[in-house]
Amino acid sequence: MKGVAEAAQVAHLVSYVLSKVRWAIEEDRKRKGKLKNGLAFIKGEMELVTAQVADNEENLEDATQETRILQLQELAYDIEDFIEGLSVPGGGSGFILTAMGMDSRPRELDRIDYFKENIERLRKWQPTAIASCQQHIFRGSTDHGAASSPGTSGSSEPPLHTRCRQESKLVGIAKPKEEILQLLSTAASGGRQQQLRVVSIVGRRGLGKTTLARVVYEDPAVVEQFTHRAWVVASGCKGADPQALLNRIHRDFQRGTAGTTTTDLPDKRYLVVIDDLQQADVWNDIQHAFPQNDTNSRIIVTTRVRSLADACSSGGYVYEMQGIGEAESESLFWGRMSNRLNRSNALDDGLQSILQKCDGLPLAVISVANHLQGQGHNMLVHDCKHVDQALGNYLTGTDATRAFQKIRRALAECYDNLPDHVHRTCLLSTSMFPKGHQINRKSLVRKLIAEGLVVPDVRLEKEDVAHHCLNKLIDHNIIDPILIGVNSMVKRCQVHGIMLEFTVHKSVYKNFVTLIHNDDHLPKRRTPYPIRRLSIHYGTTESTRLAREMELSFIRWLMIRSSDLIDFKACRLLRVLDLEGCKGLGKGAIGDICELLFLKYLSLRGSDVNKITKKVKKLQCLETLDIRETQVKSLPIEIIMLPRLVYLFGQFELPHLPNETGTFFSEDSSLHTLAGVVINNDCCGLEQIMVHARNLKKVKIWYKKTTPSNNSTFQYKSFRKKMNSQKPDKMDKSLLLSSIEERFTGKKALESISIDSSDLAKDFLSFLKAPCAIRSIKLQGLLGCLPDSVTLSRLRLLNELHLVSTGLGCEALSVLQILPCLVYLNLVESSDGLWGGDFIVQCDGFPSLQRLRFQAPKLPKVDIKQGALRLLTSLQLFCLESSVTMSYFPFPLISETTQLELWLGVIGISRLEHLNEVLLHSSLGDAKVQAWKRIAMEHKNLPHVRKQSK
Length: 950
What we know:
Low-confidence stretches: 93-103, 128-165, 187-193, 707-731
Strand content: 5-15%
Mean pLDDT: 80
Oligomer: single chain
Structural class: alpha/beta
Helix content: 25-40%
Distance between the termini: 40 Å
């Protein structure tokens, strides 16, 4: 139930805050008596209020309960701010008094009394005028009951001949239908018998998965080929009765063919459609009930869960539903409208913004059309503008218009069915970003942690919890993956237009965010709650004026994109400050930022900042600093000496670090990622950090050679002598290389190193040897050669390798296939492509490789021998042309598949037993894309072929 979910959500927040209260009680040394007792009182009373809210969630109306939950949430935020103020240097409410030699406890006791009064009010809480006025503001999902599906028993479904006529009106269905039909009717190849195959249709809600499955199921050719057919809806089966879905299939077979059940099918060709499968347990319970005969039988599964689609179609095929294009969206919209409607250019223009928000989702387009259809020929541009502005209200249920009932239910189920508070919080946090923005996954995780929105559980650290939640959102097609990185990890993601509209209005109602977008302010109504998170994007001076009129003293997360800055001094409780791409960050603005004592995350990426002031030493809580793509060329020592700094991003020179800083890095520094440092022959402070920083795991280095150096390799004696010197004024490159070698093994071993320099990369390879615990290496720059095969065979922990613009030929690169545990290999050339020859992978070559990427203007001829690349699942060919110059034309003596492979430049695709995807350049011609799809159809795994996202 929705009330249960909301109560559990705020209970999770309160539990997290109470953990901080317990810490404050335990750590209190100076604040005895009343303060300590007050904190203990808060802890006990908040636990009682939370339990009371959970107990009463069924006895109160939705809006009444939600109002109480919101008030409890806001009180929890206030208590958290107070507790953190006790621990942040200079952040407590009594800091000024303490600095003046006065006792700060009276001020703190006043806050304790304030919290006591509010907790008591919540315990005796009754609906107020605020709650009454919110009764009609938001009711969440007001539609109840399961969605009707085409095959649900007892559903009012149009007869077959009516559906066939309706199919001619479906927009964008022809091509997907053709591909699914081809999968159903594919003949046996290579002497293989055609056993049972499962075809999964996967995509977000509203894309038309059920519609596609239905038109295939009722196609006359399918009806003729599959004399035994069954259609069932799985969404109602959640494991309580393992046989529930199987029983439905039995009943449907019996209705279609007299008395037939799954036990009667060993020698018959059958088709089963399992619509809206949501639970892996349900599939596990029934999959073994279908006979594995050789009659080309098929199962079609529709689901919105990617991992479930993959599990069902092991040895089969996953078809990913795509949204319809702009022209198809317009066609679908106008096809739903009355023919009497007076269509005009002005009306077309008025619809553009709505259709852009629909973002190719057919159900959204249909909902808008059904709503506007009521206006008939009187529909005006004004009506379109109203729908555009109120779309979020229609989707969330604030304005419960019947035309949006189905899509409102679908979106609400996506949100309400998320497992817990952290998953919902991760989704709500995406509403901070403007439409179309590609969200950097790791940056979002760091922001969530910095703001305290993610807490560890008994098994996982905070970062792992956040990544797990985002994986869930992506797996369930709530968030779209945009860029896939190493080990299938999504690096960038995006929220679909309609889901973003829903999420924005959900977040605004819950007082999770306040938005100013294009000078439009959400929420438009006044609320009794303070602003906690503010996002401003694409604004003018009007946006700045709106922001300046707000009370910002409680704000915790501020994001500004393409808009003027605000007064940072007013945001004293700020934890997260994201100013990516902002202008006007002069000395004054940076100085104000340095007064934000609670700040944990600061992104100035792509801004016009050119210098970081020494006042940054005040940011004792800072965990992440991102100054990439700025004019900041050097850093003051005060940044490096921040005790809680974990992630430092940019391209900068380090200051000279005196010897005594070694103790700080060994004992107090939290630095984990240093990406990256610009060095020259006078390496300055990097050696100190490399030798002493015990938490350092990831390093990126740019090497800028300033003077010729005769000593291009390290010398142990020289290194020891200089490191023992009390005044290492100048340190050459060999010293840095030796300090890197010290991070090869042991407790201080690096996880990842990136070097952008021909000279330094060559020298790094010259002493790379086992044992070495570094798992990821990226080298950019011309290389003379790679280590010998004996050395490479001993690098048993290296699982990720990037080689960029090395100038090495295919023969030289072929030695890499001896690496025993390499999982991901990325070969990038920016100019003439991979240099010369064929890339031949011999038997047993790359025994552990799962993902292989070529990125170059031209793809070399790739020849995969039998037994090579045994574990490869993903082949990524981001090349527009092939080095093979032959044209594709029929050769009578070789198979069509071999001819296609010769033309495309990759020989032996069928030998890749675990291949499940082929990614191609975004601009590759349709002829070659179709050729790859034809090859995929002949592969036993039917790997998915698609272009990379632009």
